[in-house]
Amino acid sequence: MTFESFLRTQSRRDFLNRCLGGLGSLALADLLAVDGRAAGERNDPMAPKKPHFAPKAKNVIFLFQAGAPSQIDLFDPKPALRKWNGQSLPPSMVEHMQLAFIKKNAKALASARKFERCGQSGTEISDFLPHTKTVADDICLVRSMQSDAFNHHPGQSLLMTGSPIFGRPTMGAWLTYGLGSESRNLPGFVVLSSGRGTSGGTSNWSSGFLSSTYGGVPFRSGGDPILYLSNPDGVTNEMQRNGLDALRDLNQKRYSETGDEEIASRIESYELAFRMQAAAPDLIDFSGEPEHIKQMYGVGGEKTDAYATNCLLARRMVERGVRFVLLAHASWDHHQTLKDGLEKECGITDQPAAALIKDLKQRGLLDSTLVVWGGEFGRTPLAELRRPDDLDSVGRDHHPHGYSMWLAGGGVKGGQVIGSTDELGLTVAEDKVHVHDLQATILQLTGFDHTKLTYRHMGRDFRLTDVHGEVVDKMLA
């Protein structure tokens, strides 16, 4: 037998069992017991856990507008841009900018949108968002967001994981790792998608180096929420249960031999899938919802149906204890045909998003549910014209230096605007909120000191905010 063949026959546990004795064996047994693996047993990783301190928000709904909505046309009016419209800005103004496709001598592009002061707060919001205007006093609008990434996939990764490097745990995974889930029959972290699909794809809801138990589970809004969730024809629940019991016993035996957390995660996923066979069909059955609620969301609407269905599902999920719901709508990348593109996406998302706020509020759920709206960065105040002979095709490039997001509920102080950009929207002028600051604040609202929610991997402690981030106290109610 070669040395390599010998190694292949040896598991880590075999080696320890054969080579360690006395105090070493006692120490190993103690470590396994602490980790929940003594005698092949394992604690439920999704059982509800206490955070560092009393949370304001028990659940999070992240309305992820992937592709980067134009803040200049939706949330951050810049009338001073009009005097520069169609002209190149002085080099001193744009020398700091990171641009993906255009040059720094690109022409300034003023917004054609009309802004109105809304609610008692007087927050200025674009005419493309008439429904969002009606919840202006419930939202905290941040106009001073900054990101370090100016391309989509790294930008989405930074927003969701705290790093532009792919493969780390996402925000939803961190929260389910820290808090567990209050739902036994649905995943703790659920993903609902609409639009074209995000640049980051599954990396936006991955568990990274955490156990896959904490990763996001994509749901469909029609048919089986998850493909192949229903039993095939001729397979009864009893037959399904017997098969799962056999699988569980085999997996449990292997887990007791290796301690491999992914085997334990597989056991959990099979059991959850079995429980979901009863719970998930009820979740997507809207027959018990009042007609006026479905109309408020826009369910069945020609433009709004898909996104409205996802928003209503999100509310029903938090009612059932799902910890983190990610709604990924990915169609905001308007390098061309900005006006038509924005009008279309706002027509799809505006009504359902506002209805979600109103519905949560009237049910007494908004105080305990944090809603976040935004993309990975914003759009430039400079024009991108890929077809110079067609002025109607004008768009905007990527802009990480000063853009807008909003939050509502879950301990957030609504009816206010935080931060500002300069008069042309080129960069942050006041109260910069970096992506890491946003993440730190979300963790604060859910009961965590962001510097202490960590996981040791490859010899060091990792966290969502990497080594950065400050809680934005102005956001807190």
Describe this structure in words.
With 477 residues, this protein is of the alpha/beta class. It is built from 14 helices and 17 strands. It has helices at 3-9, 12-19, 23-34, 71-74, 91-94, 130-133, 152-161, 171-179, 237-258, 261-283, 291-297, 305-319, 338-362, 435-445; strands at residues 59-66, 115-118, 123-126, 139-146, 189-195, 217-219, 324-330, 369-374, 378-384, 395-399, 403-408, 416-418, 420-421, 428-430, 433-434, 455-457, 460-462. The strands form 5 sheets. Strands 1, 4, 5, 6, 7, 8, 11, 12 and 15 form a 9-stranded mixed sheet that branches. Strands 2-3 form a two-stranded antiparallel ribbon. The longest helix is centred in the C-terminal third of the chain and has 25 residues, at 338-362. Residues 15-41 have low confidence and may be disordered.
